[in-house]
Specification:
mainly alpha
Length: 165
């Protein structure tokens, strides 16, 4: 009985083809997969774009609030006597006003942008022709014009400050 068990076990072991299995264990035949691939970089890039998009709106809201505070402080009746003699403050509130226009347009630009299909910022109304006109006229043309005016008022503010020295 012991011989039959051993012969059955031996036959089953001999069918295992150990030599082929040992060849599979040869380390020179291993193929190493990259830890970080192009697909991983692509998906990370898409996620980072979404994070920047959300932070852009938060920073725009913060900018609107701070620029409104600048305008309110300059136009406050208690401060008119203090700021009346200096022309630089008119440049400063104009600069803040142009910055508010830019930031409001940036906040409204969510209607025309889509980073990644069917993600957080991909509205369906972006396909409408009217929204595309808004993108061309407001987001691209007016933002460029307001940035020019903002930079111009800041240069005027800086030149006025230099002339006071």
């Amino acid at each position: 009985m012991n011989k039959t068990i051993n012969s059955i076990v031996f036959e089953s072991i001999s069918q295992c083809s150990f030599e082929e299995r040992l060849k599979l264990c040869n380390k020179s035949n291993y193929q190493i997969k990259e830890i970080w691939g192009i697909d991983d970089s692509f998906f990370l890039n898409k996620r980072v774009q979404i994070v920047f998009k959300i932070s852009k709106y938060l920073m725009s809201l913060t900018g609107i609030v701070t620029n409104l505070l600048v305008i309110l402080v300059i136009w406050n009746k208690n401060n008119t006597d203090l700021f009346k003699q200096f022309r630089q403050y008119s440049y400063l509130w104009l600069n803040s006003l142009f910055n508010i226009f830019i930031l409001v347009i940036e906040i409204l630009s969510w209607m025309t942008e889509c980073f990644y299909p069917f993600e957080v910022f991909c509205p369906e109304i972006r396909k409408l022709i009217f929204i595309q006109y808004i993108k061309i006229i407001f987001v691209e043309c007016l933002v460029t014009a307001f940035r020019f005016m903002s930079n111009f008022t800041y240069v005027a503010f800086a030149l006025n400050r230099i002339s006071l020295l």
